[in-house]
Amino acid sequence: QVQLVESGGGFMQPGGSLRLSCAASGFTFSSYTMKWYRQAPGKEREWVASITQSARITSYTDSVKGRFTISRDNVKNTVYLQMNSLQPEDTAMYYCNANLYWGQGTQVTVSS
């Protein structure tokens, strides 16, 4: 059974940092490009970042470039999203994705 379980979300003041984790099981994690998406209230889900199977290539949406870092551990079957310099517009539910598989999401709220 495929599972993607996100964790690490929470409440943070602007300028702070959070690290999201997504633990994968039930499929060959190292064979998949992994992605993070987010969905803010009243908005469509948007792609945030991707990392290829070997972690050689990472990519980011423009609004998070220089602030967020995606990484992965193919031994622990986990993908991470380090989020620095958080802003109120980063408030959203963050989802882990592997092709057709989705996690349940973890909420990130940035507010003063």
Description of the structure:
This protein is mainly beta and 112 residues long. The chain has no helices and 11 strands. It has strands spanning 3-7, 10-12, 18-25, 34-39, 46-51, 58-60, 68-73, 78-83, 92-98, 101-102, 106-110. Strand 5 (46-51) and strand 6 form a beta hairpin.
Work out the helicity level. under 10%
Average pLDDT rating: 97
Biggest sheet record: 7 strands, mixed
State the end-to-end distance.
40 Å
Please identify the structural class as seen in this structure: mainly beta
The fraction of residues in strands falls at over 45%
Kindly provide the radius of gyration, computed on alpha-carbon positions and rounded to a whole number of angstroms. Answer: 13 Å
Low-confidence stretches: none
Question: Which helices and strands appear, and what pairs or packs with what?
Answer:
Elements: E1 3-7, E2 10-12, E3 18-25, E4 34-39, E5 46-51, E6 58-60, E7 68-73, E8 78-83, E9 92-98, E10 101-102, E11 106-110
Parallel strand pairs: 2-11
Antiparallel strand pairs: 1-3, 3-8, 4-5, 4-9, 5-6, 7-8, 9-10, 9-11
What are the main properties of this structure?
11 strands, mainly beta, 112 residues, 51% strand
Short description:
With 112 residues, the chain is mostly beta strands. The protein is 0% helix and 51% strand.
